[in-house]
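#structure-requests
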Amino acid sequence: MIDKWFFKQVDNSALIVFRIFFGILITLEAWGAIASGWVRRTLVEPQQTFNFIGFDFLQIFVGPQMYIFYAVLGLFGVFVMLGYRYKFSMAMYTVMWTITYLLQKSSYNNHYYLLILICIFMLIVPAHRYFSLDAKRQPSLKAISCPNWIYIFIILQLFIVYTYASVAKWYPDWLDFSVAKMLMQSRADYWLVGDLLQQHWAHVIITYFGILFDLLVVPLLLWKPTRKPIFIFGIFFHLFNSIVFQIGIFPYLSLAFCLFFFPVKTIHKNFLRRKPFYDKNEIIIPNYKPYFIPFVVAWFIIQVTLPLRHWLIKGDVLWTEEGHRLSWRMMLRSKSGITSFRIVDKETGKETYVNRNDYLTNKQIRTVSTKPDCMWQFAQRLKKEYAEQGKAIEVYVNARVSVNQKPHQQLIDPKVDLAAAEWNYFWHNNWVLLPEEEKEVKK
């Protein structure tokens, strides 16, 4: 049964067309980051970035060389699109994209993480075996079919992503429309739609369509009677997200994923009519079968459990941020903070306040004002810098943070020396105050 389900051969037209679209989109993601100034603001201008904790060695990439890095990244995207030395090109894009993902958190986006997962998927699938330069150079590579597990894998991955994105919205601030209202406030000056986006009815629509679309899009695409209507609606939904939220290639990548939901004959007819159509339904057991099942099981156990980890961590993830990343918690809240860093010289007892503008860009200042892990990393950076001058210091943080425009509350215990504190990657850090603990600190 498993062999028939996973290893039955199906026409590979959807995979081939997706490779082309995917190559175009990841090229635009890389070169667009240069053209829009994102590379300059995020990876060139900062003295240092807030990398994922434990990946400090990636700081060697920060600087003007990132223009070349992203230019080459886009070139590998072109090679993926053309199917030129596909495996190498896809591997290089995967590694380079993962490097820049781990290198900075100031512009964190769940979609960047999704792109890593899709890059890994594209690396292991035979997406270069038709309509590619590799197949032209080496005709023995050419194939018109692929194993059915490819379709199952991508559909299941998307189901997990969309479902978690929907469930994460089931909380009071989203359901009472306040989050939608806050998100739209910064779009008031948009041409034509800015005023409409400030209306209460627009917030109601955004709130419930955000929940329902994410929850139902995969099942409705799988069911034939609703497939075309939800696809058409999805075009407008994703175009709206692209224009209003400006989230890069993700809306268009989401539309490209729909290739895997339509009948293979439909994709073949509309995109690769000259390609022979495969309909033999052969079951071919691959050499990698002994490794395949354990890999798939491990992959999806991680995908299902990783977004749930914040439930095992003390406190509300919306407040503490612990367990927020890698969990498909997209556009769920607005945070602002008023934060100061006080340095105490251990030898002299002299106190000074840090001018963050001397160290951080404006975007990094906003990040370090609300994210506990980034506050800790900045304290560690100050400790290291002063140690190089032969000074031992303590760093105390006064951070008052607001979530969803609620009253500001103390986020970090102001009595704790963050320079000496340890970072717990997997559990709650006790120097991150919970709202009820903040009241105790005041007493």
